[in-house]
Amino acid sequence: MTRAVLFDLDDTLFDHRESAAEALRRVQAAHECFRRVPFAEFEKLHSALLEELHPEVLNARMEMDEARRERFRRLFKRCGMPASDEVCATTASRYRTDYMEARRAVAGAASLVAAVRSRAKVGIVSNNMLQEQRDKLEFCGLSAHVDALIVSEEAGVAKPDPAIFRMALDALDVTADQSVMLGDSWSADVVGAQAAGIRVVWFNPLRNPSPDPSRRVPELYALEPVSEAVACLLVS
Q: 204 and 167 in one domain?
């Protein structure tokens, strides 16, 4: 029987992808060198730089604001216009403001977590900064339904290391075989949770092909209808 559901946060319950895309559209519109790049390519480049620098923040080698400025410095350079420190700082600040204004939950997230919490414990396992993720949970109306928040900054270890999943199991006082993990990242959520012995459901709204079909991981393409998502997660 499933006694606990572990959720990833970004792009599983919190819609980071669309929040970032809206902020990025506004930044792109403000700079000619960015406007020359098709948005899909511009978004892909920005995402790659974000992934490149995120480990520096997680490992405390760089402050988040510093990483954000550096991300835009590299973005300007790759778009053919090296920018001053002031321009990079201003652009990073504008992006952050626009991102905060564009924040949104994934459709159905609050209803799903509330429905799960009525029948099982709820944990969040996330690679990010603690306060950042607390703010997202509060903004999305999820905080009241979460029994444990395990974040890599505080845990000292990040997905896909099975240790961070075991921390969540310990915090919820459940075993691996009593739990299920829902997350969008194949490398972090699927591989990591399976390494910890936890059943996994891959959240795959973009319907990407499975990187490893031999793993036979069930997929969920949306959090709605909530009854279907709950049935997928809470199997006897």
A: yes
How many domains, in total, are found in the chain? 2
Yes or no: say if 200 and 184 are a contact pair by the CB < 8 Å rule.
Answer: no
DSSP single-letter state for residue 110 = H
pLDDT digits (tens, 9 = 90+) for 195-234: 999 999 999 999 999 999 999 999 999 999 999 999 999 9
pTM for the full model?
A: 0.93
Final residue in a domain of this structure, among 51, 67, 102: 102
- For the stretch 222-232, pLDDT in tens is 999 999 999 99
Residues 120 and 227 in one domain: yes
Strand-strand pairing, 179-183 and 148-151: unpaired
CA distances from 183 to 71, 84, 148, 157 (A): 26, 38, 16, 17
Domain that holds residue 60: 16-102
* CB 108 within 8 Å of CB 223: yes
Q: Which pLDDT score is estimated for 236?
A: 60
**Residue written as token pair 């240790």:** 163
For residue 231, which amino acid is it? A
